[in-house]
Amino acid sequence: MKIVGVLLAVFGWLVAVVGLSVTSSTGARMALCIVGIGITLTGILGVLNKAHLKEAIWKK
Amino acid sequence: MTRCTWLKPCIWAIVVVLLAGGLPALAQAAAAAPAAAAAPPPAAPAVDAPLAVTGPTADDQAAGDPSGTKTGTVNDVVRPDPTKPVTLVDLVNQAGQNRIAINFVWTLVTGFLVMFMQAGFAIVETGLCRAKNANHTMMMNFMVYGFGLFAYWVCGFAFQMGGAAGTSILGGAAPLSHEFTIHLLGKDWGLWGTKGFFLAGATYDVGVMVLFLFEMVFMDTALTIVTGAAAERWKYVAFAVSSVFLGAITYPIYGNWAWGGGWLSKLGANYGLGAGYADFAGSGVVHAVGGITALAVSLIVGARIGKYNRDGSSNAMPGHDIVIVLTGCFILAFGWFGFNPGSTLGASGALRISTIAVDTMLAGCTGSFGALLYMWFKYGKPDASMTGNGLLAGLVAITAPSGYVNTMGACIIGLVAGLLVCFSVEFVDRVLRVDDPVGAISVHGTNGLWGVISVGLFADGTNTVKGLFYGDPTQLVAQLVGVATLLGFVFSLSYTANSVIDFFVGQRSAAEDELEGLDIPEMGALCYPEFVLKPQSVAAGSAAAD
Q1: What was the pLDDT predicted at B534?
Q2: What's the whole-number mean pLDDT along residues B321-341?
């Protein structure tokens, strides 16, 4: 799951960056950036952090 | 007929007058015009002719100058042969030299202020940790300077600024002349610089040296953020390797994209996004990079023993010295006057340093207000450490926009930062359950990102960058791309690198060492040998964890 979290983080970044070439509309670009940031945060805070919490020292 | 009788003499009279006086005058004027056009312009003084300016004599100067009127005269203009009079060439060269000298001195002195921030970070972090780890925490903050500096000299500076040529305000810095670039999606993407390794070759240059010093102390600020978040359980050898990697690779790469001529800085030219990604003094480049790396390392090293109970509820682990915490905050606020106004890289031709300095102090002020009021209303007391963190949060947030916003914008940005740091500390501690003893992830990570976004909102267009509230939404898009890059690229790179370090050397200290305090096991000496410390036993630690 840790790898999935990191991959999601990278994927979200690529959505934001590649989105610039997909459309020239400022609104669409902004929306893609926000979606990309959302995916990235999901990967870091949702998936990766949860994977680390599963093996947290205070749960042992 | 009667009209014709008087009209005819009149016409003749006019003709006579013209012939007698007017026509010669006209002819003269006509002749004078080409003459004037053909006349040579007023002779410019010969640039190498001696100027008739004299200064005080040697006898005058030997008598002393209590009023200061005989010091700093034509005698002090540098010329190839001091025995000969000053020429215009000498004056022009002296003016150029003075401009660059002013900018060198400004940039160096502000860089020295930023370097002193290391002391502020060191005592803030140490004060927020427990006494049994004080030596270890101080030693991390002390040596992060050396590790980072060495890594940056070897390759970090070259990766970051090796393609950033054209810093005219520092005299050119022309030797930093090559950026590694790929062509993708129809655009050029600058990825890293290739000149300046070891500051050797053509980069042995006075302008490059000024730039190196200033950029180096910025890089070191990012590195020292991580030591706070991972304090009290980070193995010293892992800290050393991790810091070298951050100073050599992670920080320089993002720094290049934002400041070294890389692709983020070209979003304006390539995609029509305002002025491109704008981060005046480094809310993103310095603070968010440090804060996001701190998050990555904190995830890997895990929480301190006793921080969380089995049900996930958290325990407060107060620091041991609030006096040095708040003193450190003051030192940092003082150093920030180097951080932000210094980022003009000069004073001559950059008089907005006054606005930047005022924006900086205002945002720090409202940041501390925000945190103080939040804690006071929510918990009934104005919390000292959170108020200090509020000050720092305001300063972190204003770092990127300080060159682009007015004082009202600065106040709002700082106030939001002061509130945001409180929300973020609680979110990180209670929801994410990521242990951050000093609040570095919230102060630098969360508010670094807020600072980057705030450029896209509050930039007033006075200095080329205009945000959403002043009519340009495209700038906000550029800033959001920067945020996505910080979270997606910087975090992933930091997390991967530190996972590799964890695999080879281990990131976390042994449980027995942590419970005893890291001073003796890691450093071999207590910070406060005459204090009576209360070390936890393993059993007690487990009980606390239960």
Answers
A1: 67
A2: 96
| Closest chain A residue by Cα to residue B314 | A58
Give Cβ neighbours of residue B54 (< 8 Å, ≥ 6 apart): B74
How far B272 CA sits from the closest chain A CA (Å)?
A: 9
pLDDT of residue B31: 44
pLDDT in tens, B85-109: 899 999 999 999 999 999 999 999 9
Query: Which residue does chain B place closest to A47, by CA atoms?
Result: B432
- ipTM of the complex, rounded to two decimals: 0.97
Q: Does A34 touch chain B (CB under 8 A)?
A: yes
* CB atoms closer than 10 angstroms to residue B175: 18
Report the residue of chain B nearest A26, measured CA to CA: B474
**Minimum distance, in Å, between the CA of residue B114 and any CA atom of chain A:** 31
State residue B25's pLDDT score: 44
B328 close to B127: Cβ distance less than 8 angstroms = yes
Whether residue A49 and residue B186 make contact (CB cut-off 8 A), yes or no, is no
The whole-number average pLDDT for the span B445-454 is: 98
Q: What is the pLDDT of residue B264?
A: 97
Say if residues B449 and B483 touch (Cβ distance below 8 Å): yes
* Sign of the alpha-carbon dihedral angle for B347, B352, B353, B354: positive
Tokens of B300: 């890997």
Predicted pLDDT at B40: 66
Test A37 with B484 for CB contact under 8 angstroms: yes
Residue B494, judged by CB atoms within 10 A of its CB (0-12, 13-18, 19+), counts as buried
**What pLDDT does residue B34 have?**
47
B214: closest CA among B345, B349, B355, B119? B345
- Decide if B310 and A45 are in contact by the 8 Å CB cutoff: no
Please, what are the domains in chain B? 96-523 (1.10.3430.10)
Domain ranges (residues) in chain A: 2-51
Alpha-carbon span B371 to B391, nearest angstrom: 8
Using a CB–CB cutoff of 8 Å, tell me whether B434 touches chain A. yes
